Amino acid sequence: MNRPLLLNPGPVTLSERVRNSLLLPDLCHREPEFFDLQDEIRARLLQVHALDPSIWAAVLLTGSGTAAVEAMVSSLVPQDGQLLVLENGVYGERITRIAQIHRIDYETLAHDWTAAIDLDRLRGRLGQAPVITHVAVVHHETTTGRLNDLSAIAAVCAEFGVSLLVDAVSSFGAELLEFAPAITAIAATANKCLHGVPGAAFVILRRSALAAAPTRSLYLDLAGWCREQDRRSTPFTPSVHAYYALREALREFDDAGGLQARHRQYGQLADQAADGLQKLGILPLMPARDASVVLRAYRLPACGYARLHDELKAQGFIIYAGQGTLSRQLFRISTMGAVAAADVARLLAETARIVA
């Protein structure tokens, strides 16, 4: 049976190289071989953006991307701090829910799901509320495929001396991300733009931020994880085989040319899909300049989502529905993972047949 091609926003279709890494020998997480594995992953994650390991640390976790985001928010907003969450989609709203559960003092700056972050509103709110110490934002909001303007948001935060926490779960490894002075941490995962498997996630943070880190959680305490990993240990049992896959995915990432090459590859595939769909009368939700290269949202054709999904699935393609009320208006296509131009061409041919 042919494997399905996953065009959903993670998990991704694996390369054979990464898939074969899951067959490596079973490994005890208290042996030096595991710590060699852990050390290599941590170093390679920093190398994606050429970060100085004396200033930055990559902290590995076993969990999903949400685990990394929750660890970042719950570990880095101090007890006397206040968080401002920028919401323009499901995942911004999820950060608000994390703040509620951990009883973190927070406010939200809510936007319509199809809107960009309003920098004037952000600047006004920070000017009116000097108690805000941290801002949280989703870099790539996969609800709509919008790429929020992280550089501009970071610049506003810098004006007010506020730390920025970034959900980069669906952008790290493919979108260009400047680690500006206001950025304190980013949270991400193995099983999206890095092409690993679910079960390994990470937070890249400024080491200086751990000095004031509160302890709100046993398992998600970033200071504890970082301390143990720095001394070649681990506080809990990790997903060893997910780590094997992440190491191989990072090696493959580097061999293929790194961040710039992956950004270029994704952009070519996303543009190929967008151009082909537009010729079929299927229009994008937003202009390419506002969208990520990772995932884009499109207006549903007359046949509706159920038929489009089911007939494409029968041909080996998995697409993704819109979320919430957008499920009646949109569908989404991601070109992460082991996807080639020939795959996109075949997707377009099958879509043309369905909507004819």
Write the layout of secondary structure elements.
Elements: E1 5-6, H1 16-21, H2 32-47, E2 56-62, H3 65-76, E3 83-87, H4 90-101, E4 106-110, H5 119-128, E5 134-138, E6 140-141, E7 146-147, H6 150-159, E8 163-167, E9 183-189, E10 200-206, H7 222-230, H8 240-255, H9 258-279, E11 295-299, H10 305-314, E12 317-318, E13 320-321, E14 330-334, H11 341-355
Parallel strand pairs: 1-12, 3-4, 3-5, 5-8, 8-9
Antiparallel strand pairs: 2-10, 6-7, 9-10, 11-14, 13-14
Can you name the CATH architecture of the largest domain?
A: 3-Layer(aba) Sandwich
- Gap between N and C termini, in Å? 28 Å
Query: What overall geometry do the principal axes of the alpha carbons give?
Result: globular
CATH class of the largest domain: Alpha Beta
Strand order of the largest sheet: 2-10-9-8-5-3-4
CATH superfamily of the largest domain: Type I PLP-dependent aspartate aminotransferase-like (Major domain)
Tell me the strand percentage band: 15-25%
Q: How many β strands by DSSP? A: 14
Listing every helix as H and every strand as E from the N terminus to the C terminus, the arrangement reads EHHEHEHEHEEEHEEEHHHEHEEEH
Number of domains: 2
- Please estimate the helix content: 25-40%
Low-confidence stretches: none
Structural account:
With 356 residues, this protein is an alpha/beta fold. It has two domains: 5-11 and 258-355, Aspartate Aminotransferase, domain 1 (Alpha-Beta Complex); 16-255, Aspartate Aminotransferase, domain 2. Helix content is 39%, strand content 17%. The chain is built from eleven helices and 14 strands. The strands form four sheets. Strands 2-10-9-8-5-3-4 form a seven-stranded mixed beta sheet, sandwiched between helices. A three-stranded antiparallel beta sheet has the order 11-14-13, covered by helices on one side. α2 (32-47) packs across α8, α9 (258-279) packs parallel to α11 and α10 (305-314) crosses α11. The chain starts with a strand and ends with a helix.
